[in-house]
Design a protein that fits this description.
Oligomer: single chain
Structural class: alpha/beta
Number of strands: 15
Distance between the termini: 64 Å
Strand content: 15-25%
Largest sheet: 5 strands, mixed
Low-confidence stretches: none
Strand order of the largest sheet: 1-5-4-3-2
Radius of gyration: 36 Å
CATH topology of the largest domain: Alpha-Beta Plaits
CATH superfamily of the largest domain: Reverse transcriptase/Diguanylate cyclase domain
Shape: rod-shaped
Length: about 525
Amino acid sequence: MKLSLDIILPNLNCSIVKTSISDSSRQELEDIRFLDSPQGQLEEKHLYLGCTKELMNRVNSTCPVTAVLIGEEPSGGFRQGDNIILAGREEKLTDLFNRLQEIFYQYCQWERQLQELTIKRASLSRFVECGARLLGTPVSIIDVAEGTLAASETEEGDLNDDVWREIRRGYISTDTRERDTLKADMIIRASGPVQFYSSVSERILLAQAIRVRGHVVGFLSAHRLVKGKEGYPNGMVQAFAKLTYYVSVRMSEKDFYKLSRGWIFEYILLDLIERRLVNPADIKERVKMLSWDANQTKSIAVIRFCSREINESELKRRQVQLENMWPGCRSILYNQRIVGIEFNANKKMSPEKETEFISWLKGANLECGISNYYEDIAETAYHYEQAEKALHFGRVVNPGRGLYCYWDYMVEHTFEILNQNMDIRTLIHPSMLRILSLLDTTPFLIDTLKVYLRTERNISLAAKELFIHKNTMIYRLKVLEEKLGCDLDDYTTRSRILYSIDVLEYLEKFGEKKQ
């Protein structure tokens, strides 16, 4: 790692008589060279070590020179533009050389660690911990929605800083952002690290925007341990810039693809689906960053290929088509599916649009499950499950339909939940059990009962659906009344019988209770 004098000077730990530092103190230095070695013209890319006289004898170039010296200061002073550290008389060149070597080694090892973390695609937490060890201050990475991506560990009570507490909690609240004098735009406008006073933190914060492919994807920040308006030394600022560079490289990797595209929406929706974002106050803060109306009626759509072979590039292409076709829908790719959240979901698709949508699904070999409508954004995970269950049950109950709405399969989902904790055969009405016991001798009874009740006891319509004569239907009903031993004119009885029929159909299609 190349070091500047700004980094070297605070770490030199020696007696210093005088420093003569120019604007070129940020020049990166490759290595250490002795002034008494037989080398040619002095170059600005090296750090020179030696006696004052040796330097004065060799200064013959126009470029600025950086040197650590021992001896007397020249009567005319040091040349303007050079960067000179004049050590005390008691210092020895060998000791100074060893200290300088140690500084170079320490920083080279630090950069090597960052390189290894980048190659190994380590977590962002590893990067901030690596940065905090060198800088000696807490370090964090937040996204552009000011949600925490990583924060270094701090002992309780070490940092009396409201902003840092919120970063550790998971995000910087809207109220804090509005009260603070430090704004995100101030950091974004800068090309490198910036130091600004934060009125909420009550200290100077060091921050830099993290850019990937032209997008600002987040911010790296360092927090002083104590309050006040003391700034950061140039050396720390330069090391901080190096850390930001490696974090940017890491965040250009595939696992940060969505974030690097500036799609914070994707991360928030994922947090909702995977139940990482459950606290109502947290949810309210996060969705504000997306300009969502959290009270809008919403629904979740899950789209997947009918076949098991998944082509990711094809799925991305279909995602774009979906959002063009369905303007109120925002979507992400998740578990080899397109997961969309539709706003203003109570404004139903027109029959023409629905027909077009189903035609698109079938033409692309896709199928779609849609959840019930909901308003509370905190319920997103439940409605994602509903959309998945609509697909699961729909393709069995109504194969080939393409579009499956959860409200058509709520009964099946209820039975699945019940069947995980009990044998739902015990829920079958006693009258239905008598019918089941007679299936060998009168197999037509169960179908007759099912169709009769589902056609609201319309004898003509039921006979038509069963493809039998009306008189045959009347005969079957007489047999049913004898065998059932109950009154089908009673609404409560009919509802219990229909419920039992639903249980039987569930068991037939989705199997017996697992032991």
